[in-house]
Fold:
Amino acid sequence: MTLIDGVKQSRSVRDGVRDGVAAMTSRGLPAPHLAAVLIGDDPASVTYVGMKERGCRRVGMRSTVYRLPADASQGQAEALIAQLNASPDVDGILVQHPVPRGLDEQAILDRVSPAKDVDGLSTTSLGLLAAGRPGFRACTPLGIMELLDRYNIEIEGREAVVVGRSNILGKPMALLMLQRHATVTICHSRTADLASVTRRADILVVAVGRAELVTGDMIKEGATVVDAGYNRVPGRTLDVGDVEFKSASAVASHITPVPGGVGPMTIAMLLRNTLDAARALRGSPA
Ligand code: NAP
Structure:
């Protein structure tokens, strides 16, 4: 069994981004600039935005956090996005999820210009993916594809099963696999007999948000298992994935651990998308 090491691979992605940023600044161009929109003061969101800022700093990018109060109106949020879209100094825009109750998060995301949508979460970006057209892809599924490629996991012609169908994870994941010519099945909360479907998978991606939902007996011998979940479980110090690691690792050929698998790749892909956005906006070569 091979452990898919997201920490190591994310470091290598970030090294590549750092080189790209250095090449840009050495030509006298400003470093890429990520604008993070943080609405309200949800502690987890504050932490995530802080991690993204640190990630930018470490690769030589600029980042600015634009804060709005928890009682900001839909109009205020959308006006801020319009201002960032129009700013020639901003290359990438991310809206930290979740936004406070009462705001329409997707409507805010949909205001982000496709050229700056480095999180790939607007309806336009998802539509471009569905249509197989160039555009920014959501960072977590993009990071999973990067891991599969870095471990030389064959995708074309193989049976891929994605458990979960959210717009941020399951759906774009399935579309990315389809684009690479896998035969794709998507499962969700209303799938009858989940195990009979997951057992067919050569590549199984689980993105549900339920601790250890998928156990070894639901996995085909020799499958590649990617666990996107992280769940806080009382009494356990580390986050727990959606896959029961012990039984799954006894049958899988490749498996991502939690933590240290999919998680670290997400910010790395955000940084890479931001570099790509800056290159495209400046007409700068890759
Ligand atoms: P989400 O929006 O809550 O979607 C969960 C999906 O799982 C839904 O499609 C739901 O089906 C499905 N589901 C729920 N219970 C199920 C069951 N018993 N059997 C089969 N499917 C079931 O969650 P998400 O945002 O996609 O996140 C999924 C997981 O990934 C979470 O653990 C989250 O923390 C993690 N995550 C990780 C990263 C990262 O960077 N590593 C990023 C984002 C999320 P219905 O559609 O029918 O409700």
